């Protein structure tokens, strides 16, 4: 093996080889070329090697790049131009400029790297190219033309003109030239290109056009667009006349967006001139009707191109500041609001039926568009399945935005945002209205890139062969392989997926297109290119991604077409008003619970920073609605029972004399309660009177404030008016002093004895400055100060006292001629501004003296106003506090308990008997699990999963079929299908993440098939039974949930709490130390809970019997016997509970003697459990710790008494052995 480095084969050797190969070529200038090569080329190469290149290449590659442009040179000018083209081809704009300057000095020639042959417009008049020949285009053409003429390629395929196929047969290529393009290797998502490749390629760097070139390009394009539109509709004449200004506006907005929004802020903030092209060409789609004008169209299309992809209110506001001011300068009245541009429903407008543009956009009012969408939603739901769409104005706007994208040929979208903003639903509706087939992959277990490619094959046949419009919808959870996005990227950019079909499949599939290609005029030379163009036109890709999802940035970087060729729609959370309207729409017709819409919005906003999504807001509203209706129904039922029972008792009261005594006692109690009520009423009245006094005080203060503010305003106006009259004199004098030259001041200082005028003016200045010494020496000293002008200019006239002003006034009276401008200006240029300054400050001082009383009063009024405002704020706060206090008393929310509100004591006791731990966290989790309107995901990291045991026991207790199945099991899919079909309860355990096949079920995407509801599970449609329930359980403390899955489940964590662990360790200690005591306590607790449940059942039975009884209660023997029996049982149960409570207290006293051991144990476990944060190896499970705890109980020695035993157990637990 011989290693050849760049040093082995240097640039000089390559040049010599090239010169020798052309020594016999008479077209080359011989020795002169040798001199140019050695005198200029090698030096130029040294400069190029020392400076960075746009695309990193080897020295060999750079030399070959240059030599390719030196073929056939005859003169030194040709040589210099070729040298510049070859070296500048791989340099950016800044380096290119420096390079050309260096080459000009080196060759003593002016370098021209643009193509002179193409400067003549007639040379490119064939009409086959739509390019505008800017300087950049000419430079690029000049660079690549020699390579295209010689067939130079832009590894085995390039070097050996062929490749080996799958059967290892060498396939040769003839008359094929490879021309490749790529983005800057330093841009996001790009990998370094192999130098082995760049060394054999000719590399040309094409920069973005400059601002001037963009203006040249788009002014020509825009004028052409406006001419075409004006020819069809005279309303566009205004745009034609102002096309130059609109072009400048577009380019200014583009560069403003480039400067303000960078890819570091958001990965899809990639803005290129292609967007300007889209902006200009997009204007062709609009029809001007009503009050809409060309500027409205320019604004709307600009917002669709740029604004729709911006994230956050701040970014939207910044964009509005970029586009609105220049538009308004052209006469734009602003966005009227309440109007949307859409192509949907145009057939309903006769004036648009003759339009040849199939995707023409028309402006609709929000109300009209809402009615249209309502009709289409009903049609969709009749034909397919319910959309559950509420048409807020934000939803209408998003539908119109989606339409503007999907109505374009091949228009694709990238939708970013959290779950629940309605992306899927809006896309389905727009596709339905455009008669598009919507396809979304049906994911099963094992679905991968091979299955996806098969799906794509069918889609491409429908779109490219059959010509059907198809919309491919792909969501986060459906992208199970990164290669899927690569396929989508290829479809968006080129309308094909390389290698998707074999040659035989492709040839068979393309056969029907040959005749159709002939009918359309053979615009494509190959059938496959015709097929690809049809795919690009008919296949619309909609990607729905969550920007907070894992790999979001990597996906965009690796697949540039998702950013560059898709319309990006950033859909964020609903606006506050939108959330309120949405909540009211969901809660309407439900007994007044719609008043809670604002509160629900506020609750959701408190959790937005923690990742709460719009879908979770909808779940919150629906859960509130369900709880409200359930509680309302329960209270209504309870009220009915109570009213019925009380009615029966009232009837019995009239006939039963034995109850009179009890009634009297109750009457006394009622009197006492009445007194309490009157006392409370008195307090409320007093509070209301106090509140009324505060309100009256507030009103008086407000009136006083109004008077004081008016008086203050009048006084301030008078002061400001007088000061304003004098202020210009002061400003003019200060300006004149500031313009005094230092030479003029030095000239005055140099005088041994100054003229009388100068001396008088300086005396006035010194007197105003507060100096008593007005001798010439002191004047010269004053002028010698470097900051003398600043002292005069910044002098505050408020420092002038009455004695100072009197002296200066006397000086002005006696020396009036010295202060006249005409006189003093002839004496000294520097003294004249000072004289004006003295007179102006004297006048200003007089005004200040006159307004001084007004200013003092103004300050007093301001202080009074401030005090009144502070008092007003205090009174308003006191008033609000009083209102809050009184309403709190009325609502009686001080003793509100969430657990008591959401569950009865009987239910909590039943859960405990079913195996639920008794701590508050477990009970709260049980409430959340049983009342959740989304599928619960219970996290139980213990090895003894209490959550599963309790849940299974609870479901069986309700006489429902239940099945427990691991998601890792092969039969999980079958178990899920059967549970859905037959309405069973399925407990899915060992959940580590949400599988894609679960999404339709978790989202509740039910479809209607006749009178049946079905749900998709993988690739199957399963009949949905309303009794089906799904619970998921995970042992992973931190399950890996994607953002798209997090909002589909209700996460509840059954972790170990200090209270629960302490009780568990105490039970273990008592079982070891006093087994009989623990058994007695367990049995006693069981009996207590059973008795309480029986007592609650008896109370319910009693109320039901009274409410449903017929006739006179005293004559209903069965009822009386039942009441007596119930009373006897109730007394027996009550007595049993009383005795049980006494025994329970005694047992607890004995158990508490060992509580210190349990406390110490729980503290130890919770301490070591957190050690995993230091090192992953430090992981300790609860079963391991329980075994250590049991070992400590067994290894400790005997003790004389209980306190000593407790101390011994604690020490053994800590030290691992008895002391």
From TrEMBL:
Keywords: Cell projection, Cilium, Coiled coil
Main location: other
Molecular function terms, GO-annotated: dynein intermediate chain binding; dynein light intermediate chain binding
Domain Dynein heavy chain AAA module D4 stretches: 387-600
A Pfam match: AAA_9
Domain of life: Eukaryota
InterPro entries the record matches: AAA_9, DHC, DYNC2H1-like_lid, DYNC2H1_AAA_dom, Dynein_HC_stalk, Dynein_heavy_chain_D4_dom, P-loop_NTPase
Domain Dynein heavy chain ATP-binding dynein motor region, first and last residues per copy: 910-1133
Domain Dynein heavy chain coiled coil stalk: from-to ranges: 642-884
One example of a Gene Ontology biological process annotation: microtubule-based movement
Residue ranges of coiled coil: 681-711, 1077-1108
Domain Dynein 2 heavy chain 1 cytoplasmic ATPase lid: 235-312
Protein's cellular compartments: Cell projection, Cilium
GO CC entries: cilium; dynein complex
Family assignment from sequence similarity: Belongs to the dynein heavy chain family.
PANTHER family in the cross-refs: DYNEIN CYTOPLASMIC 2 HEAVY CHAIN 1, DYNEIN HEAVY CHAIN
Name listed for the protein in its UniProt record: Cytoplasmic dynein 2 heavy chain 1
């Amino acid at each position: 093996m011989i290693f050849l480095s760049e040093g082995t084969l240097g640039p000089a050797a390559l040049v010599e080889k090239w010169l020798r190969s052309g020594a016999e070529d008479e077209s080359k200038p011989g020795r002169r070329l040798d001199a140019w090569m050695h005198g200029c080329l090698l030096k130029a190469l040294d400069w190029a090697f020392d400076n960075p290149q746009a695309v990193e290449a080897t020295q060999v590659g750079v030399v070959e790049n240059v030599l390719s442009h030196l073929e056939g040179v005859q003169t030194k000018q040709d040589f210099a131009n070729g040298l510049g083209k070859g070296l500048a081809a791989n340099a950016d704009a800044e380096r290119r400029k420096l390079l050309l300057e260096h080459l000009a000095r080196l060759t003593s020639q002016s370098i021209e790297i643009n193509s002179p042959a193409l400067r003549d417009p007639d040379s490119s008049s064939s009409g086959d190219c739509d390019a505008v020949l800017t300087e950049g285009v000419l430079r690029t053409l000049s660079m690549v033309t020699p390579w295209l003429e010689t067939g130079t390629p832009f590894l085995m395929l390039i070097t050996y003109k062929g490749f080996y196929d799958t059967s290892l047969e060498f396939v040769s290529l003839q008359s094929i030239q490879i021309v490749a393009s790529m983005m800057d290797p330093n841009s996001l998502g790009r990998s370094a290109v192999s130098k082995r490749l760049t060394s054999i390629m000719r590399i040309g760097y094409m920069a973005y056009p400059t601002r001037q070139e963009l203006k040249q390009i788009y002014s020509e394009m825009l004028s052409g667009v406006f001419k075409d539109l004006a020819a069809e509709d005279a309303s566009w004449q205004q745009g034609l006349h102002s096309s130059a200004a609109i072009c400048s506006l577009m380019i200014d907005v583009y560069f403003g967006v480039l400067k303000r929004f960078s890819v570091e802020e958001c990965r899809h903030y990639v803005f290129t001139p292609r967007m300007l092209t889209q902006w200009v060409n997009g204007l062709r789609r609009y029809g001007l009707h009503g009050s809409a004008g060309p500027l409205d169209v320019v604004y709307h299309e600009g917002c669709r191109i740029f604004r729709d992809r911006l994230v956050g209110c701040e970014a939207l506001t910044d964009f509005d500041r970029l586009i609105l001011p220049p538009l308004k300068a052209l006469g734009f009245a602003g966005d009227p609001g309440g109007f949307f541009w859409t192509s949907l429903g145009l057939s309903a407008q006769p004036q648009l039926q003759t339009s040849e543009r199939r995707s023409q956009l028309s402006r609709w009012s929000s109300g009209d568009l809402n009615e249209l969408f309502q009709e289409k939603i009903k049609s969709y739901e009749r034909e397919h399945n319910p959309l559950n769409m509420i048409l807020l104005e934000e939803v209408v706007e998003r539908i119109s935005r989606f339409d503007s994208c999907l109505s374009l040929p091949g228009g694709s979208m990238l939708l970013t945002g959290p779950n629940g903003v309605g992306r899927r639903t809006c896309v389905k509706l727009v596709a339905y209205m455009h008669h598009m087939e919507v396809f979304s992959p049906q994911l099963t277990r094992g679905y991968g890139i091979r299955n996806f490619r098969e799906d794509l094959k069918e889609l491409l046949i429908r779109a490219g062969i059959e010509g059907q419009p198809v919309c491919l919808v792909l969501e986060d959870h459906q992208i199970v392989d990164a290669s899927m996005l690569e396929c989508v990227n290829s479809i968006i950019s080129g309308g094909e997926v390389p290698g998707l079909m074999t040659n035989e499949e492709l040839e068979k599939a393309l056969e029907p297109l040959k005749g159709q290609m002939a009918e359309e005029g053979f615009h494509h030379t190959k059938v496959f290119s015709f097929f690809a163009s049809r795919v690009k036109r008919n296949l619309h890709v909609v990607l729905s991604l969550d920007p907070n999802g894992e790999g979001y940035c990597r996906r965009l970087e690796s697949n540039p077409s998702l950013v560059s060729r898709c319309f990006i729609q950033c859909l964020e959370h609903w606006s506050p008003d939108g959330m309120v309207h949405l909540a009211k729409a969901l809660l309407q017709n439900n007994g007044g619970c719609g008043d809670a819409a604002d509160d629900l919005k506020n609750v959701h906003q408190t959790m937005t920073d923690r990742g709460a999504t719009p879908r979770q807001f909808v779940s919150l509203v629906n859960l509130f609605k369900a709880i409200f209706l359930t509680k309302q129904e329960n209270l209504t039922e309870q009220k009915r029972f109570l009213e019925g029972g009380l009615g029966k008792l009232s009837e019995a009261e009239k006939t039963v004399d034995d109850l009179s005594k009890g009634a009297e006692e109750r009457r006394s109690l009622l009197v006492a309660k009445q007194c309490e009520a009157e006392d409370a009423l008195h307090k409320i009245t007093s509070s209301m009177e106090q509140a009324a006094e505060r309100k009256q005080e507030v009103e008086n203060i407000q009136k006083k404030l109004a008077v004081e503010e008016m008086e203050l305003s009048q006084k301030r106006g008078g002061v400001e008016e007088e000061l304003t009259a004098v202020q210009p004199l002061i400003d003019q004098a200060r300006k004149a002093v500031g313009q005094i030259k230092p030479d003029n001041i030095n000239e005055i200082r140099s005088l041994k004895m100054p003229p009388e005028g100068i001396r008088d003016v300086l005396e006035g200045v010194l007197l105003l400055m507060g100096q008593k010494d007005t001798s010439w020496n002191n004047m010269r000293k004053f002028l010698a100060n470097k900051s003398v002008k600043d002292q005069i200019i910044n002098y505050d006239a408020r420092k002038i006292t009455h004695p100072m002003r009197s002296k200066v006034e006397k000086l002005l009276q006696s020396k009036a001629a010295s202060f006249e401008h005409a006189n003093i200006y002839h004496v000294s240029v520097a003294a004249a501004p000072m004289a004006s300054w003295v007179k102006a400050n004297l006048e200003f001082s007089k005004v200040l003296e006159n307004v001084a009383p007004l200013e003092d009063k103004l300050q007093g009024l301001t202080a009074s106003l401030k005090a009144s405002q502070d008092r007003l704020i205090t009174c308003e706060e006191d008033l609000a506090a009083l209102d809050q206090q009184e309403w709190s008393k009325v609502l009686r929310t001080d003793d509100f308990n969430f657990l008591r509100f959401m569950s009865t004591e009987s239910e909590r006791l039943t859960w405990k008997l079913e195996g639920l731990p008794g701590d508050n966290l477990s009970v709260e989790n049980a409430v959340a699990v049983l009342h959740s309107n989304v599928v619960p995901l219970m996290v139980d990291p213990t090895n003894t999963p209490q959550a599963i045991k309790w849940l299974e026991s609870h479901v069986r207790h309700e006489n429902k079929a239940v099945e427990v199945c691991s998601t890792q099991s092969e039969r999980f899919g079958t178990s899920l299908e059967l549970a859905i079909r037959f309405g069973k309860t399925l407990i899915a355990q060992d959940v580590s993440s949400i599988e894609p096949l679960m999404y339709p079920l978790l989202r509740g995407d039910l479809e209607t098939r006749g009178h049946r509801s079905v749900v998709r599970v993988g690739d199957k449609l399963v009949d949905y039974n309303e009794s089906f329930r799904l619970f998921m359980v995970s042992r992973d403390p931190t399950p890996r949930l994607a953002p798209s899955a997090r909002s589909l489940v209700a996460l509840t964590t059954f972790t170990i709490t200090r209270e629960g662990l302490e009780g568990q360790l105490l039970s273990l200690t008592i079982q070891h130390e006093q087994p009989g005591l623990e058994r007695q306590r367990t049995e006693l607790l069981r009996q207590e809970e059973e008795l309480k449940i029986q007592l609650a059942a008896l109370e319910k039975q009693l109320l039901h019997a009274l409410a449903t009884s017929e006739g006179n209660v005293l004559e209903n023997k069965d009822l009386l016997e039942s009441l007596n029996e119930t009373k006897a049982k109730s007394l027996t149960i009550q007595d049993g509970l009383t005795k049980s409570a006494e025994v329970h207290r005694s047992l607890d006293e004995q158990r508490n003697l060992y509580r210190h051991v349990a406390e110490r144990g729980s503290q130890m476990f919770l301490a070591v459990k957190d050690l995993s944060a230091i090192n992953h190896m430090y992981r300790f499970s609860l079963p391991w710790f329980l075994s250590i705890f049991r070992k400590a109980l067994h290894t400790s020695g005997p003790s004389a008494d209980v306190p000593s035993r407790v101390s011994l157990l604690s020490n053994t637990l800590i030290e691992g052995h008895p002391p």
